[in-house]
Amino acid sequence: MTRTPTTKESLTNPGQIPESRWYTFDLVSAEGEIGGWGRAFAPSPAAAHRFATSFLAGTSSVRLRGAANHD
Description:
The chain has one helix at 45-56; strands at 21-28, 34-42, 61-68. The protein is α+β, with helices and mostly antiparallel strands.
């Protein structure tokens, strides 16, 4: 019987929960002005970008700065 990974488990490595980290991003207006910033705790840069774009950006675009290890 094949086990299906849970949503918290890595699809490429079942049984392993991917390590999440904090990603910082800027909210950028259409004119290129930085209107704010935020952080997302996510397992990958793509997941952090999706979160920021879907839930926080509104009429701004999102520019991911990178990952930081915060305790």
